[in-house]
Amino acid sequence: MRKLALVRRPGPRVAEGLVTHLERSPVDPDLALRQWQGYVDALHAEGWRTIEVPPADDCPDAVFVEDTVVVYGDVAVISRPGADERKPETAGTEQELRGLGYRIEHIEAPETLDGGDVLKHDGTVWVGLGGRTTPGAVDQLRTHLAPLGAVVVGVPLAKVLHLKSAVTALPDGTVIGWDPVVDDASVWERYESVPEEPGCHVVVLDESTVLMSSAAPRTRARFEERGLRVVAVDIGELEKLEGCVTCLSVRLRGAPGPTWDPR
Ligand SMILES: CN(C)C(=N)NCCC[C@H](N)C(=O)O
Q1: Ligand 1 centroid from CA 247, angstroms
Q2: Residue 210 pairs with which residues in a beta bridge?
Q3: Ligand 1 centre from 226 Cα, in Å?
Q4: Cβ < 6 A, ligand 1 pocket
Q5: Which of 8, 19, 61 has the most ligand 1 atoms within 8 A of CB, as the residue to mutate?
Q6: What residues act catalytically?
Q7: Per its UniProt record, what PANTHER family does this chain match (predicted)?
Q8: Residue 39's closest CA among 247, 235, 242?
Q9: Which pLDDT tens digit goes with each residue over 15-66?
Q10: Of the residues 18, 64, 167, which should be mutated to test ligand 1's pocket, given the most ligand atoms within 8 Å of the CB?
Q11: Architecture of the domain whose range is 3-253
Q12: CA-CA distances (angstroms) from residue 262 to 99, 167, 171, 252, 259?
């Protein structure tokens, strides 16, 4: 697996980020930046290289770079974020992925899609249909990804911001979720619930390693019991803005395109 990820450092207005399903609590921008740096350092320590997307400092939520794109194989589908404040965030991501040789597609108006609603595993792409992503955008995504063999499935989402606020997948494909915010766990053949909300978000670093929040120690212990190695990071300031570990990067694991330039 190629270990390369896009990240975007938090801007000066990060504390003004959107909150939808949480009570707003004060965010310390300096601590948020240090925690983001800790996340990036953890990726580097695990052998990942990172590329910083140019800042979008007028957009408080720009650090949640995952929401700006869906990358599958050599295609990058640039999102059209559901929140108007976030729409300008996509330009920098597009510029970076175009430079890397990805084939660029777009979610077109009036439809909207946030990358945080998209969970991929082994050829299946589940897309949460909640407050940010529309059914028409799921159809557009299917049009772009079906030629690559992906099966794109819309799933209900009412209780949280994004699909990946509720569920993510372990390296073996087991989907893990925090039951109180999962609308319909029967969507997944292999589903397991975890005991803590921040525990349902993992970033797969390799076949036996996951990155997760340090705010879920009981879930961490469970993952370790099943033989996974866990890298835990404190991203508390970003969690106050409904962020999680997945939102802070776009992992570029797919097959390189014909014009791929590893830089
Ligand atoms: C999987 N998740 C949760 C994400 N990919 N993104 C989180 C975005 C949070 C931001 N304050 C917002 O409201 O847009």
Answers
A1: 6
A2: 204, 230
A3: 29
A4: 17-18, 20, 61, 64, 66-67, 83, 86, 116, 161-162, 164-165, 241-244, 246-247
A5: 61
A6: 162, 247
A7: DIMETHYLARGININASE, DIMETHYLARGININE DIMETHYLAMINOHYDROLASE
A8: 235
A9: 999 999 999 999 999 999 999 999 999 999 999 999 999 999 999 999 999 9
A10: 64
A11: 5-stranded Propeller (3.75)
A12: 10, 31, 25, 11, 10
Residue partners of 28: CB distance under 8 A and separation at least 6: 15, 237
* Separation between Cα atoms, residue 232 and residue 213, nearest integer Å: 5
The two beta strands, 151-156 and 124-129, are parallel
Distance 117 CA to ligand 1 centre (A): 9
Q: What are phi and psi of 250, to 5 degrees?
A: -120, 110
Nearest to 97 by CA among 54, 37, 40, 62: 54
| pLDDT beyond 60 at 118 | yes
Kindly list the strands in the beta sheet with 103-106, ordered across the sheet, starting from the edge strand earlier in the chain.
69-72, 75-78, 103-106
Whether the full predicted model's pTM is greater than 0.90, yes or no, is yes
Q: For the beta carbon of residue 173, count every other beta carbon within 10 angstroms.
A: 12
Give the DSSP per-residue string, 172-208: TS-EEE-GGG-S-GGGSSSEEE-SSGGGG--EEEETT
Residue whose tokens read 């077109």 = 108
DSSP H/E element including 86: none
